[in-house]
Design brief:
This protein has helices at about 1-10, 25-40, 60-70, 90-110, 120-135, 135-140, 165-170, 190-205, 210-235, 245-250, 255-270, 275-290, 385-390, 395-400; strands at about 15-20, 45-50, 75-80, 115, 145-150, 155, 240, 240-245, 295-300, 300-305, 310-315, 325, 330, 335-340, 350-355, 365, 375, 380-385, 405, 410-415, 420, 435-440. The protein is of the alpha+beta class and about 450 residues long.
Length: about 450
């Protein structure tokens, strides 16, 4: 553990505050023991963070063990239970909840570091899994020894050690820990690598974990260089509305792929393992497609969107359908309001004038539906709302936000801000209702 202690001593300063993730297993208990050894020297404030996943019979016992260890060493103990998991990738969901917990603690205690007990074997497993699945430079590198965030840094001091070295250290010092029996369950991909591939690699070279660490650091260095190069391109390829398709299409195919990976890393950060080559290639096809508007679904409810001359990745918020009766005003989810006003000058599409004798009250404000059609003013026929939005070049991500105003018979009177129907009355005509569409 000399390497680990040297590293920790090089990072620590007087009165540092540290959040340490402690499960009760040999790895985290080893890291906790090392920090306790350094506590007095640096006058450290250590917060032991334990997450009870409630997945095993021994979970409660382990939680009590970690709590007692913290108390025995005069450390702050913070605890979280995961009461419920949604259907899907349980490992991913648990990881997200864990790190959210650590993040909140780091802000609460103004911590300088979050420390986790990931070791060299973990790194090998992660890299091999990413290689099999397909990823990018950053993904293939596994995880870094240090990950810098705005308010704290996540560090993994045990990355130079193997699982065997950690367990030997614990046993030599007669330190108690718990073993997770699920680590032997071969239904998990990681465990199959752990139980079958790692023993072979270590037989070939006992220090193979250090070779994988060097490989990881090399990839990170190359990736950092490329990211800086891409950041230098940003003034040319990106503006407020997004990445410019005309500029992206000029790039060398390799550089275009790296730019796409850069945009994905901006969104997914530490969860970059969720995206693969498949997603990158789908986005490249999207950029080169002949469609003006198109999208590609991505993990965690994100979408890559092509909207006319721009490419973006956006979080999809499922808009709930709504239908309101318009009495005086209606406040909308897109932070706009439709209101009745006494007077409004102008001819913009943000104003609608109606003659109540030509429609059936009350007025309704609702979300659009499949097949919606409107008798467009001065067109002489009805046109699909979908086609109107396309013709008016309304960005794909904005279309579901737009309201529709109808009368009580279902006649579409207005697509606020976009088009008026034949029911709109000229300002010099006969009308008794004026509607305005404006920001709240």
């Amino acid at each position: 553990m000399k390497k680990v202690l040297l590293y920790l001593n090089s990072k620590l300063e007087k009165e540092d505050t540290i959040i340490i993730a402690v499960s009760g297993g040999p790895d985290s208990m080893c890291l906790l023991h090392l920090l306790c050894e350094l506590k007095s020297k640096w006058n450290l404030k250590i917060i032991v963070a334990h997450v009870n996943h409630k997945l095993r019979a021994s979970s409660e016992e382990e939680a009590l063990f970690v709590k007692k260890t913290a108390q025995d060493n005069n450390l702050i103990y913070e605890y979280m239970e995961i009461e419920k998991y949604n259907h899907g990738n349980l490992e991913k969901e648990a990881r997200i909840k864990r790190y959210q917990f650590f993040h909140e603690l780091a802000l609460k205690y103004h911590a300088k570091y979050i420390m986790t007990a990931h070791h060299g074997d973990d790194l090998i497993e992660t890299i091999l899994m990413r290689l099999e699945r397909g990823s990018n430079l950053k993904g293939y590198s596994g995880f870094q020894k240090e990950s810098i965030y705005p308010h704290y840094t996540i560090i993994r001091p045990l990355i130079t050690q193997t699982k065997e070295e950690i367990e030997n250290y614990m046993n030599e010092h007669h330190l108690k820990y718990y073993l997770d029996e699920s680590n032997l369950d071969e239904s998990y991909t990681r465990n199959r690598y752990r139980l079958h591939v790692l023993p072979f690699l270590k037989k070939e070279d006992a220090n193979v974990h250090l070779k994988f660490l060097k490989f990881s650091e090399e990839l990170n260095a190359v990736n950092s260089f490329l990211e800086k190069y891409i950041e230098g391109l940003l003034p040319v390829i990106k503006e407020e509305r997004g990445y410019k398709l005309t500029e992206l299409k000029k790039l060398d195919p390799f550089l275009l792929k790296k730019v796409i990976e850069y945009t994905l890393s901006e969104v997914y950060k530490e969860d970059l393992f969720l995206v693969s080559d498949k997603h990158t290639n789908l986005i490249i096809d999207l950029i080169h497609s002949n469609k003006s508007n198109d999208r590609v679904d991505l993990p965690s409810n994100y979408q890559a969107q092509k909207s006319y001359q721009y490419y973006n990745i956006t979080k999809m918020h499922k808009e709930k359908a709504y239908e309101y009766k318009l009495v005086d005003e209606v406040h909308l989810p897109n932070n706009m309001v439709i209101k009745k006003v006494k007077k409004k000058d102008g001819k913009s599409n943000n104003i609608l004038r109606l003659n109540s004798k030509e429609i059936t009250l009350p007025l309704i404000v609702r979300t659009r539906k499949n097949g919606d059609k409107m008798a467009v003013k001065n067109l002489g026929g009805r046109k699909k709302i979908k086609d109107i939005l396309i013709d008016e070049k309304i960005p794909l991500e904005k279309r579901d936000e737009l309201p529709i105003v109808t009368d009580s018979q279902g006649n579409i009177l207005w697509l606020p801000g976009v088009k008026k129907s034949k029911f709109d009355v000229e300002s010099n005509g006969i009308y008794d209702i004026i509607l305005s569409y404006e920001e709240e």
